[in-house]
């Protein structure tokens, strides 16, 4: 961290950008289709895991912004390392939960009697997939931030 | 880590025990009910997230056993810190994915047309819930291991 502050700052900027992108793409996931006289709506907040995903990535984006202003040495920097790890775990949970439901939406589960829904609302599913990809990139960048800190400070 | 090796070893033992327990409880989650002439079966491997949960916790348990034999100083101990973090993230993903599907099984989702299944197979759902609780304890212990290392070594 102290060795290469510019690379590290860039890594944080990229993680923040990816987190904002993931939150925005998830938050704009919706589709309305009309089938004869039946109107079918799909909103991201219909699925609790997708709402959790948006909140988690919004927290990560806000935290990333704050962390940019913390000096790389001193007591506060130790807290940043701990929070980096907690944010990485939060994002892992968000991607995993949203990913599990997204997979269900695409494939369904015949044993549980849950039908796939992505054929009915393909735009919605693609939008969620975009959020997941952006979220996975942010998560990877966060993992790199934590691993970089561990490898240079420990 | 070097300051209190016994406490740390105990923490690892507890994490390993909780991980084994989570994997075993998930792996034994099944129920068969007969409704008139219709037989309904529920197995953990019917849900991909539950299979992922079992594999993740089996990996964590195996890794925890190996990590017990790694000395607390030296190059190998640095790798253990990195693997501890990766295992904590793996367990977070496992709990989140299985938790999301488990929540769906209990509550269903009317928007997606996914009905709750726990009223039909309550024993199965309770078993999965047991695995999730044990898994959450193992995850908490892993987070403590990583935070302990960060706070003592950084």
Automatic annotation (TrEMBL), chains A, B:
Signal sequence region: 1-22
Parts of the chain that traverse the membrane: 46-69, 81-101, 129-150
Name under which the protein is recorded: CASP-like protein
Native source organism of the sequence: Apostasia shenzhenica
Subunit structure of this chain's protein: Homodimer and heterodimers.
Casparian strip membrane protein domain boundaries: 7-140
Superkingdom: Eukaryota
InterPro entries: CASP/CASPL, CASP_dom, CASPL
Subcellular location: Cell membrane
Family membership: Belongs to the Casparian strip membrane proteins (CASP) family.
Single GO cellular component term: plasma membrane
Keywords recorded for this protein, A-Z: Cell membrane, Membrane, Signal, Transmembrane, Transmembrane helix
Membrane topology: Multi-pass membrane protein
